[in-house]
């Protein structure tokens, strides 16, 4: 057993495995075990792995439980001090593991960390899913250094640092194995999208830190399982965001934020409708319907978590700042508004 286990979750991603797995093998060397966990793919992923990479351990999940359950099932079968949750559509670079493990070894309160994530198709530009480290505003809108909604920055060295952030991207997330299991792993009910934010929030609620380390860089395609424009993705994002907030917000402003978000989501659905996105319009309605039906179950999770105020939250509304205030770059957000 090696200290680090890189676990790639696959669902019908045979083309990604063929393209990117050799790169991961080459640039990982002896630094980590590499494992592919297949989520009951219906393509020839499993046969391809067995014939082409018989030396790579293959875990076969019996059903496709999405990102959350897929990893939860797989990681119960993996022994290591650190897990690396790595998307199948990522190109890694030489020495991509060592800087982050060195950082995490230096401080036992660092629970999770992500590298710099750049676009595979434009390698001088940040990638949507993680970029230079994730944050969230007090109203539950997630964003990143280098990505405010669809405004994505060029990499000009502005985030060549190591800092504490709010969440680390599930596209490439290093996490202490002990803490992953101790605090319940990813929420199975999320299926996909925002599960890593929920998990990082849970860790922060226990006093741990989430970090970004630019000493490691990876390149991400993005949208490998669901297309970037998808009513299914809209549904999951709106549904999971409400669950994320209800589970983790402190008592002092829980209901104020939830009521406001329901209203703002309604405005977003109307915007989708006027832009011709009727599928997205109904996706928001279905997300709200799910929240109302499942609120008692979500409340049970909240009571177990006992949420409290945490740090690194942007105290203003990033949506208003961006869409009405014209803020396009992370550097234009005032540092004093993060607490």
What would the keywords be for this entry?
2 domains, 9-stranded mixed beta sheet, 39% helix, globular, alpha/beta, 3-stranded mixed beta sheet, 10 helices, 339 residues
Helix and strand layout, with pairings?
Elements: E1 4-10, H1 14-28, E2 33-39, H2 45-52, E3 57-61, H3 66-75, E4 82-87, E5 90-92, H4 98-106, E6 110-119, E7 134-137, E8 142-144, E9 147-148, E10 151-152, E11 162-165, E12 172-176, H5 177-182, H6 195-205, E13 209-220, H7 231-248, H8 254-274, H9 278-305, E14 313-314, H10 318-324
Parallel strand pairs: 1-2, 1-4, 2-3, 6-13, 7-14
Antiparallel strand pairs: 4-12, 5-13, 6-12, 7-8, 9-10, 11-13
Helix pairs in contact: 1-2, 6-7, 7-8, 7-9, 8-9
Give an overview of the whole structure:
The protein is of the alpha/beta class. It folds into two domains: 4-220, Spore Coat Polysaccharide Biosynthesis Protein SpsA, Chain A, CATH 3.90.550.10; 231-308, no CATH class. The chain is 39% helix and 21% strand. Helix 2 (45-52) links the parallel strand 2 and strand 3 (57-61). Helix 1 runs parallel beside helix 2 (45-52). The mean pLDDT is 96.
